[in-house]
UniProtKB/TrEMBL annotation:
GO biological process per UniProt: RNA 3'-end processing
Native source organism of the sequence: Haplochromis burtoni
Name the UniProt record assigns to this protein: Mitochondrial poly(A) polymerase
InterPro entries to which the protein is assigned, alphabetical: MTPAP-like_central, NT_sf, RL
SUPFAM superfamilies xrefs: Nucleotidyltransferase, PAP/OAS1 substrate-binding domain
GO terms under cellular component: mitochondrion
Occurrences of domain RL (ranges): 69-136
Pfam families for this protein: MTPAP-like_central (PF22600), RL (PF17797)
Residue ranges of every copy of the Poly(A) RNA polymerase mitochondrial-like central palm domain listed in the record: 195-353
GO molecular function: poly(A) RNA polymerase activity
Annotated spans, Disordered: 553-585
Length: 585
């Protein structure tokens, strides 16, 4: 479920917009103190020591403008607990609305957005304000339909009095929750002066906003309120592109039902003396337990979850999940459980993205390019996934001279005792302290890297070699598959097992074409109507690469005058032409 297109207009912020990856956040220490106190109560001393270590390294990271994903999670989860989501009427007076809510306590932040109507996210300074607010909330009545009496923090604002037309919500500023359409992006990029600026501009336009990130954590928190009916200590955490730094506005919301505090994974048992243990029902395997939990929670989401529609239980998948649309946020949601390796790969991607700003920019650009040409798709199939593409970009950056990012094996070697993690026999250990990671000095520009990325994969020996970010070197393929990308943690798995030969061929052909286009001065320099110019600017540089017609095929280029491309690319284009001719004959 996506937010309707008419709401995609960029609207100004009602308060200063900062980004998910913003540097130097305030009130972190306060939040961590609370976190430690909570962990002490609910988990035990060992975890607190590990957390204290993490906190120290986080404090020094924060000085350097970086924080761990764990800290980000804690901070956002805590904000979400103090927040409510309110469906508003467009005739409501904004000032009155805030005044009405402020009766329950100080409001830290609020923002409006549109998704099947106008919604407000309101974050109070204190949790008690939410309790106080909910005490005064009425049960809906007066309809011919009966309501399921499940109370949540998703509310509707009713205005029973007269309508005040002087300061209506219609004048409010709404936060965009989806990306600008591709045509608009192409125009925007065409006005930039350099390809480097185009890449930064694309990243800026597509990345998740502060508000969108808050909304994602709020949806997790609302779902947690359903799951805690059965599992009071559980949490629901976002993973994947919602939090790994590579999420695009409108991307799906992957969630993990975390039961670790109940399953005993984090609890130390006494070694001697009397103790009690819970009697618990047993199933044949951990997978069977996950399936039964997701089945029940999925049923509750379907039957009781306000705003949750189209619930599908996909329990026989390799990773069982419940899929649904959360209408008030517009998010397509995937709820999984016991999926701790995916959380680790999310942490890893987040870490790589924080190491060097070029990582995120290149990933965003390649993902956007791939989507524009149908290399990736929102429908599952034989396409390359965004996750695979991201790993391919990381691998490419490890292969630069000198490398821009280290290998996963190197990150494992830098790990401290608190970083040790083995999940289902898989070594998922890697360093979490950014300060221990020494980067080499590589000064390549984004423009150079983009061109080199296309050349790299235009010539990669896919038929023989596997992509391996653990080693930072291609390895002999362990199995027959058109594209083999080793899963970073479950090393016997191929991340791109789904990709068929024709999709890989298309990807390679598009890389060849795009590399060639970037080498043409006609494409790689700004054309008329550049920055400040009037009218629709002529696409150039990255904007050209996003135009499907430009990267369409080699046939159309035969007639055009060519400039010398690199020898390698020329050879490749020749071989591709011959291949096409052979196919036709
Ligand atoms: N994942 C994984 N192995 C896979 C597929 C996914 O470990 N074969 C993990 C990754 O951490 C990934 C997350 O599951 O980030 C979510 O998967 P998916 O939604 O497919 O990818 P995203 O990275 O979230 O990208 P998108 O924006 O397309 O949703
Ligand atoms: Mg996802």
């Amino acid at each position: 479920m996506r937010i309707c297109a008419s709401f995609r207009k960029t609207m100004a912020s009602s308060f200063a917009v900062c980004r998910l990856h913003m540097r130097g956040r305030a009130s972190l220490a306060k939040c961590l103190q609370k976190t430690d106190a909570f962990l002490h109560r609910s988990i035990g001393t060992d975890v607190v020591i590990a957390r204290a270590e993490a906190t120290r390294s986080d404090e020094s990271d924060e000085k350097n403008g970086r924080k761990s994903l764990h800290t980000l999670h804690m901070e956002r989860q805590e904000q979400a607990e103090r927040s409510v989501l309110i469906s508003c009427q467009s005739s409501t007076n904004e000032k009155k609305f805030l005044k009405y809510l402020s009766k329950h306590g100080e409001i830290n932040k609020y923002f409006f957005y549109e998704s099947y109507g106008v919604y407000a996210v309101v974050e109070f300074a204190n949790q008690e304000s939410v309790t106080s607010l909910l005490e005064g909330v009425a049960i809906p009545g007066g309809s011919h339909e009966s309501a399921v009496p499940f109370k949540s923090r998703l509310l509707s604002l009713r205005n029973l009095g007269s309508v005040d037309s002087s300061n209506q919500l219609s004048g409010r500023q709404c936060q965009p929750q989806t990306t600008i359409p591709i045509n608009e992006l192409i125009k925007r990029l065409s006005r930039e002066e350099s390809i480097d600026k185009q890449i930064s501009s694309l990243t800026e336009a597509y990345q998740l906003t502060e508000e969108n990130s808050r909304l994602r954590f709020l949806v997790c928190s609302l779902l947690k309120d359903i799951a805690t009916a059965y599992f009071p200590e559980c949490t629901i955490k976002p993973f994947g592109s919602s939090v790994n730094g590579f999420g695009k506005l409108g991307c799906d919301l992957d969630m993990l039902l975390d039961l670790d505090s109940i399953t005993g994974r984090n609890v130390k048992l006494p070694k001697s003396g009397l103790s009690l243990e819970y009697q618990m029902k047993r199933a044949n395997s951990e997978r069977a337990v996950t399936q039964s939990i997701l089945s029940v929670i999925g049923e509750c989401v379907d039957q009781f979850g306000p705003g949750c529609v189209g619930v599908q239980k996909i329990l026989n998948a390799r990773c069982p999940l419940v899929r649904f649309a959360h209408q008030p946020s517009g998010f397509q949601c995937d709820l999984t459980a016991n999926n701790r390796v995916a959380m680790k790969s999310t942490e890893l991607l987040y870490l790589y993205g924080e190491l060097d700003p070029r990582v995120r920019s290149l990933v965003f650009t390649v993902r956007c390019w791939a989507r524009a040409h149908g290399v990736t798709s929102s429908i599952p199939g034989a396409w390359i996934t965004n996750f695979s593409l991201t790993v391919m970009v990381l691998f490419f950056l490890q292969k630069r001279t000198p490398p821009i990012i280290p290998t996963l094996d190197h990150l494992r070697d830098l790990a401290g005792p608190g970083d040790k993690s083995v999940i289902e026999g898989n070594d998922c250990t890697f360093v979490s302290d950014f300060n221990k990671i020494q980067l080499q000095s590589n000064t390549e520009t984004l423009e150079q890297l983009l061109g080199e990325f296309f050349e790299f994969y235009a010539t990669f020996p896919f038929s023989r070699m596997s992509i391996n970010i653990r080693k930072g070197k291609e390895q002999n393929k362990p199995e027959v598959a058109p594209l083999h990308i080793q899963n970073p943690f479950e090393t016997s798995l191929n991340v791109s097992k789904n990709v068929n030969a024709s999709q890989l061929d298309r990807f390679v052909a598009l890389c060849q074409e795009s590399a060639w286009l970037l080498q043409q001065s006609e494409t790689s320099t700004p054309r008329g109507g550049g920055a400040g110019g009037e009218g629709a600017p002529t696409p150039w540089g990255l904007a050209t690469l996003l135009l499907p017609s430009q990267v369409a095929g080699i046939k159309s280029r035969k007639k055009r005058r060519r400039e010398p491309a690199s020898e390698r690319i020329k050879g490749l284009l020749e071989s591709l032409k011959n291949k096409n001719q052979l196919k036709k004959s």
